Records
---
Amino acid sequence: MGKLICFEEEADLVEYAVKRIRQHIQEAMNEHRPFMIAFCGGRSPKGLLRAFFSLRLPWRDVIILQTDERYVPPNDKLSNQRMVRSIIETHAPEALESFLPMDTGLEMEEAAQRYEKLLRGLLPEGKGPDVVVLGLGDDCHVASLFPGFHHLKEDNRWVLPVEGPGVEPPRITLTPEFIRSGRYILLLVIGRQKRSAYSRLVSQSADVMDCPGKFLLHLPQTEVLLTADACSDSKE
Ligand code: 6PG
């Protein structure tokens, strides 16, 4: 079962997350292998991204992946890789060559297959990335795994294109199959606007098809980090 950890402020949450990520960096270095981390997009990871790229790391031994991407050009304001790249350029430009974004210049299915091939080439059989960082969407989605979509039941592919009603722009996403292989999974629930999604995440009535983030809760390697204003019972 995953852990739920509540923090008074986002800064405290970020400090804890960086401490835990550093533990996994050390583990990878001790095993003489690259440290691999996947970041989602949106607002939730921004504080952690800034703190992570402010670390003094041997960036040539780090691989930075995406959990999902909007199918827009890389310089589009909606692009997740544009957001991540901008933070890297500001805090650790030497890490740019370690960043492996999804290629939205390709046709969607091709882009998904290429990213999956890249992942399979980087990861030894049966091993996953060291850390996966996800945000909780207002509709309880994580990565680009949306309520009711078949992607939630995919048990072979690691990366899939996502198109359908309400998904605009279309997306490319890691699948639960791949995310579950992560050694440490961080789900960030930050801000009072996440109250409704959080209460569905922890409610007994919703299932994974209603609230995709739920698949993470059953994993022992998951830690849900939330700010006090996101907990439904927090004071006004
Ligand atoms: C995306 C993200 C998505 C995001 C959540 C939370 O492409 O939008 O990868 O999964 O992390 O929707 O988004 P916010 O942090 O902006 O609320």
Note: The beta strands are 3-7, 35-39, 62-66, 68-70, 131-135, 159-162, 171-174, 184-189, 222-227.
---
Amino acid sequence: MSKILVIEDETKIARFVELELKHEGYEVQTAFDGRSGLAQYESWQPDLLILDLMLPELSGIEVCRRLRQQSDIPIIMLTAKDDVSDKVMGLDMGADDYMTKPFAIEELLARIRVCLKKHRVDRGEPHGTLTAGKLKLTPASYSVTYGDEPVALTKKEFDLLHYLWQHEHAAVSRDDLLSNVWGYDFAGDTNIVDVYIRYLRQKIDDRYGVKTIHTIRAVGYMFRYEP
Ligand code: CA
């Protein structure tokens, strides 16, 4: 499910939008100023941004400008009524769409769907593609890339990464991994999982200086991307 970051200093609006989006099944995080919004973008890697223009610390315009230097994430701006110059500036800075406050939540939801869909089509990404930072996994072609560089994985390494990634932010047990990735019972020998986790870490985490696979003590592993 898509992850949406809401950066809005009016807590009432932020909470309202957060609740409605969660109700629609999106994963949602909120930030109340521009600077922490940017930090949350970096650490959480959302799929879409809802960005108020009038923000403390860093303005929405500035957040938009900085993000566009590194990302093509869809951005929907929230603007105060009649703030035409801000609206124009936001669109110039690369925002995809805007909503004028107060707005109907149904309209925001519709625009979110359009933005997300358009973004996928623009990228030409087949269904099921997973992205986190520069890391991308495409099930249709069994490929993983970091930026423009292909990451050479064996089929088993790919399946393991894919399974963990599909359960992003959840601790997955070794037994679970064995039965779902290897597909049969290894008679209690879960060492094989640890061995393959080590291969993945060498090929991704160590090589690119990121953290993707976390050890969850006494349980197993969790996929969570950290730049
Ligand atoms: Ca504001």
Note: Residues 105-123 form the longest helix (19 residues).
